[in-house]
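Annotators were shown the component list below and the corresponding predicted structure, then asked to write short factual statements about the assembly.
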Amino acid sequence: MSTTPAQQFLRDAAIKSADMVHREIIRRGMESYETVHLKGRARIKDWEAARQQCQEIKREAINHLDHYLLQFEEKVIARGGHVFWAADSHEACTYVRDLALRLGVRTVVKSKSMVTEEIQLGPVLEKAGIKVWETDFGEFIVQLRNEPPYHILTPCMHLTRDQIAQLFREKLAVQIESDDPGYLMTVARRKLRQAFFTAEMGISGANFLVADAGVVAISTNEGNGRLCTTLPQSHVIITGIEKVIPRLEDLAVLWPVLATSGTGQGITTYSTLIGGPRQPGEIDGPEEFHVVLVDNGRSRLLADSEQREVLHCIRCGACLNVCPVFRHIGGHTYGTIYSGPIGSVLTSHLAGVKEFKHLSYASSLCGACTSVCPVKIDLHHHLLQNRRNAVAAGSQAVSERLGFKLWRYTMLRPQVYSIAGWMMRALMRMINGLGLTATILDPMRKWNRDRAPVPLPQKSFRALWRKGLGGN
Amino acid sequence: MQKKVSIFVPCFVDQLLPQVAIDTVKVLRRIGYSVDFPADQTCCGQPAYNTGYWDDARPCAKRFVRVFKNAEVIVCPSGSCTTMVRKFYSQLLAGNSYGEEAAAIAHRTFEFSEFLVKIAGITDLGVSFPHTVTYHASCHGLRELGIRDEPLQLLRKVNGLKLVDMARLDECCGFGGTFATKFADISVAMGTSKAESITESGAEFVTSIDPSCLLHIQGILGRKESAAKTIHLASILAREGS
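Structure shown to annotators:
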């Protein structure tokens, strides 16, 4: 029998949560994030008001998604671009592959995009004989390692510079003299520069689709985005339908808030607006310009009035950075494209509640994510709703369902509850007394395996109250 | 006439940590309240609610509303169980005949430390606890109820108590209800990080307003044979004066 995602998750979580080297790397990464994030927030006069405004902009966009997407499409087409509406991964990948084959593309340069990971575009293009270069430094590294991004914003957060130097030595067939980050970046840049000049197609994601101006907003810190979108003969943008925003002026708040939440920057180094293919009289830019709008389950979420706001997400990664679960198990353990709190909420909707419900349970519901989300998604309460939906779908183990029926029976009857409590304590005292703690015979073994046993008093509070404590 | 409060004693406090409830009663009486314990109470329903079994949690919530219907003020020595009544009942009982009564109960249910500071208006209980103490800000108390300073205000007034900060005092300890056993490895790893912060603070005691967090933290500290011990805020405030 093959391993389910839930079983795999438990296995990987056990390994990673005991991996102290990993914990130390992530702790350092997250602590430095915390410092710059707080500093960045202090630069914004009223952070709470900015969050509020971002939430309102996204709410307006999502509540009128049809209107704004059509407005965006019309503008792009008017400027000579193409817009393709992809219902799912297959449609999106097929469109891009066929386009690339039609244009005779042999090399693609890619700027960072989580949606291309979601639809698994890379393998589809490679299978068609097209070479794909990831040009974001972090993505370039995880591509060399043949693994998915570890984090939606910082794909190689889990690696030390020493590991990266070693990887370059093995994979790039060049002399690597140092593990200095600047030096390693120069090595990657030299390699990628050749790719930028030979690629016939550039593929990017989008941070925002601006409806009233019909332009695509892309933020990068390395400038690779601009090279991908201007040098090759064709440019394809692949993005989720939820990325649309109503007005160009909305970027005045969304751009700084995204940068602050993502990296603590006031604004991302390269903020680019792209409106279509090269226009008559222009000297650069792509001849072909295509936008692929990916649904892939998003409109199902849009139809859910209770959880629609999950589509507000601007993929800043802040919720991952403050999540204590993420901190202890790392990004890859989730086994999903989107990890951390937003990934746990979203994956049940995009990839299926039956297979991925365990992620909604793999949270202590501490709410740190909700407190930092720049568009104020009520993340941890969505996890509760996902759990309710999982139970309603009847996908839980029979033993658990019966367990809660029994629990309910007990809790509705104070006498039964009192006797059951007394019996449980007596049983546990016996188990502990016989040295059977944490063995298969211990009903509390999951608690007791790595924790000292709970206290087991002779009398409950209510018994003591009856015995005289009750006299005021 | 003497002021009255009803105490809501979470089921696991009743069964495993009766001293926390005893100390809560002691403090409330000491500041002049008469304390009532509605004997029919059991569980607020949170374990089922948090695990997604809303249909099993709902009758417990209804029952709670019936049991505490006549209570003027309800005080609970747990931020988490207070959260259940105050924040989640309205959603759980929305649209049925209990909705209105649940909303009313939400407004008169208070966590122990916020009751002392905000309702009773007391921060100095004149007690003494000559030890080094660090405070763990539990998630439900902090982020659901917005209880940030109340416990610290109370602790600062305790004679002889030296309050020291632990690193990341507002980071989750990893308890999380059924999470603690469903994902025991992650829960214990998180608890271990918390225990490290506690140990590094040099405190003899870690205190909190949430006995469930303390139960979990004690379990981890106990395994590590750490010198630090857990103690509920009510148990510090129930000490004698010097």
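Statements collected:
1. Chain B has 13 helices and eight strands.
2. Residues 184-201 of chain B form the longest helix (18 residues).
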